[in-house]
Amino acid sequence: MPIVSMKVNGKEVSGEVEGRTLLVEFIREGLGLTGTHVGCDTSQCGACVVHVDGKAIKSCTALAVACEGAEVTTIEGLAKNGTLHPMQEAFRENHGLQCGFCTPGMIMAAIDLVNRKGKKLDEATVRHELEGNICRCTGYHNIVKAIQDGASRM
Amino acid sequence: MSETGIGARVKRKEDHRFITGKGRYTDDINLKGQVYAYFVRSPHAHAEIKSINTAKAAKAPGVLGVFKGEDVAEDKIGGLICGWMIHSKDGSPMKAGPHPILAVGKVRYVGDHVAVVVAETREQAKAAAALVEVQYGVLPHNVDAAKAKSAKGQVHEVAPNNLVFNWSLGDEAATDAAFKKAAHVTRLEIVNNRLIPNAMEPRAAIGSYDTGDDHYTLYTTSQNPHVARLVISAFHGLAPEHKLRVIAPDVGGGFGSKIFIYAEEVVCLWASKRVGGRPVKWTAERTESFLADAHGRDHVTHAELAMDKDGKILAMKVNTIASMGAYLSTFASCVPTYLYATLLSGQYNIPSIYAEVDAVYTNTAPVDAYRGAGRPEATYVVERLVETAAREMRIDPAEFRRRNFITSFPHQTPVIMCYDAGDYNASLTKALELADYKGFPARKAEAAKRGKLRGIGFSNYIEACGIAPSAAVGSLGAGVGLWESAEVRVNPVGTVEILTGSHSHGQGHETTFAQLVSDRLGVSIDNVSIVHGDTDKVQFGMGTYGSRSGAVGMTAIAKALDKIEAKAKKVAAHVMEAAEGDVEFKDGSFSVKGTDKKMAFGEVALAAYVAHKFPTSEIEPGLKESAFHDPTNFTFPAGCHICEVEIDPDTGVTQIANWVAVDDFGSVINPMIVEGQVHGGIVQGVGQALTEGCVYDSGSGQLLTGSYMDYCMPRAADVPSFKLAFTETKCPSNPLGMKGCGEAGAIAAPAAVINAITDAVGVKDLPMPATSQVVWNALQPMKKAAE
Question: Domain boundary at A55, A75, A95, which?
Answer without folding.
Answer: A75
